[in-house]
Amino acid sequence: MVGTRRKERRKYWKPKLNDLCQCGSGGKYKDCCLNRLPGFDIGKAYTAACKEGKFGRALVFSRADVTQYTIWHRTNTAPMLHIGEPIEPLLRIDVNALGEYVDRLSWLYFNTGKWKSWPAALERLSANIGHGRWRKKIIYQRAVLHLASGGSRSKARQELAKLGPITPAEDDIEILQIFIDLELRNASFSGRTAFFDRLLEIDESAESQIQYRGGKAIDLLLHGDPKAAEAQLSNLLDEFRNEEGLSSDKLVRGA
Length: 255
Description:
The chain is mainly α and about 260 residues long. The chain has helices at about 45-50, 55-75, 80, 90-110, 120-125, 130-150, 155-160, 175-185, 190-200, 205-220, 225-240, 250-255. Residues about 1-5 and about 245-255 have low confidence and may be disordered.
């Protein structure tokens, strides 16, 4: 009869007690994040610990945040991936959100002197989302690791090469940013401009607009077109001069 069917409830996914914890620590879930999951207060304990300068505690809370978001992803989005549902917007949200939590985790591994353990943690974290978008995030983190720990740009390039050819059609902001830094320093003006334009298209934050429009202006200047460079900077200043918290002096320094 109509109205008598029970509404199906999605089964809440959770790790088994003896499984490796989803935070990448290498410990068992029951001994790691089980009793620290923040629920909808995700991020609060981490932020408080950072403000107090207690980075060891912040690392513990940051791990729990990664585990919490992974549980939400595997409860809500992952099941739809397996049945072929068109969930690109949800997947993008999950990848970007979990990526931000992993960024925090990376920062804490370095600031607590545990960076030598970070490659193994990244390897474990690579399974948190079963999709190519997440693989990109992990490769990005590995490339950043090479740059940060030993300053090896060649190793960072080798890591990034695992993604295959990167073009201005790429829609991952972090991948575009690190590709520009690693590969486009000696590229043609037109080649760099295409990537700058792509970043300006998909990253509307004031900071990025300043950085990359300023970068375009510098390229114009270096390629012998000072009038176009001046016009680029003038337009940039006019557009952002009245933005909250952004003075003209700050804009000029940012450019």
